[in-house]
Design brief:
This protein is of the alpha/beta class. Helix content is about 30%, strand content about 20%. The protein starts with a strand and ends with a helix.
Length: about 180
């Protein structure tokens, strides 16, 4: 059985260090030293845990993430319940993790796109806290901006990666119990 981890982010050097790209950071960590394969709407790599774990980086922009997710499910003949979406969350303090079995998009445009394309919210997600914007009117500037120097070590990528592997091998309940 294949499990799929989709790290959300925006393609291109301009966005590499932004808060919006923490999902990419985690799949990159999991796929270190692995060559990514290219499809029209996503990059993919496979690693072994107890099962095959398919890592995905959409090459669409965040607001069109659902297009890539649909393409992944079709290409690999999978269902939404096989997915774990890694997504930034402004409603969590920087560095906090929250695994969820399912839920709403919570105002996140990447999740909104996925829910709309799948016509379902029946997929797991790992929400990664990136903190509230200092200016509530500058949400876009906040998520498309880099972390402050004092926040730079707050995202524990190794811990998030361990949580992803826990989800893949032991399931969402274990990941929620151990990492939330």
């Amino acid at each position: 059985m294949v499990k799929v981890v989709v790290g959300l982010g925006n393609p291109g050097m301009r966005y590499v260090d932004t808060r919006h790209n923490v999902g990419f950071w985690i799949v990159d960590h999991l796929a270190s030293n692995i060559v990514w394969q290219q499809e029209p709407s996503f990059l993919w790599a496979t690693i072994k845990s107890n099962e095959d774990l398919l890592l995905i980086k959409p090459t669409t922009y965040m607001n069109s993430s659902g297009v890539a997710v649909i393409d992944v499910l079709e290409k690999f003949n999978l269902i939404p319940e096989d997915l774990l979406i890694l997504v930034d969350d402004i409603h969590l303090d920087v560095g906090c993790f929250r695994f969820r079995r399912r839920g709403s998009h919570g105002g996140h445009n990447g999740l909104r796109s996925i829910v709309e394309e799948l016509k379902s919210s029946q997929f797991s997600r790992l929400r990664i806290g990136v903190g509230q914007p200092p200016d509530p009117n500058d949400l876009i500037g906040h998520v498309l901006g880099a972390f402050l120097p004092e926040e730079s070590d707050a995202i524990d990528i190794a811990q998030a990666s361990a949580g992803v592997l826990c989800w893949a091998t032991l399931g969402i309940e274990s990941a929620m119990n151990q990492f939330n």
